[in-house]
Amino acid sequence: VELDYKSIHPHLLYAKAGSTPNREDIYSIDLTWSNTSSQQLRAWVKQLVLVAINATSEKKAYAAFRYDQPTGTRGKRLKDKQLAELLNAFKAENKPISKYLCSDQGISLMAEDSRIATYVINKMTKNNIAVLCVHDSFITEVENMFILKKMMMDAVNEVAGRLIPIDLYDDYLPTDDAGNKVKAVYLKSVQ
What we know:
Elements: E1 2-5, H1 8-17, H2 38-54, H3 58-68, H4 80-93, H5 95-98, H6 106-126, E2 132-134, E3 137-139, H7 145-160, E4 166-169
Antiparallel strand pairs: 1-3, 1-4, 2-3
């Protein structure tokens, strides 16, 4: 099973600002564009915010956003004015952390999330539980899910002084004949 911190860098910025988000989904904004779904807007906002956290200016954030978009897509063709509208909508919803955008916060946030990962790995290893770290998510055996979740909660509380929501990803687990997720998979060892 894979457990993933939800929006870790924005949450770490909220901790730095001494505040909390006003929405469960940080990347959700109150904005509508014609011929654009709210899911598409959210995806663009998420990508834009993540590059803005690492950028030194809005102009550089917009260029980095477009660079990361697949060739031929609408996202690749978004103009600075449109991207500014998205970023400003995010800032309006997340005022306490807006000052950290486009101010080169990426390195310090990566250092924090590496301390979080180190904490989780060390605690799980000390308990003789296998864990795989993939950026800000961790994979372990299904039967160790609750131990992993506790370690992840302890880690962010220790490093950031607060809790960060955690998502469970189990979409790679097989389903039974009725379409229900199989919560435990036992594999035969290869001899």
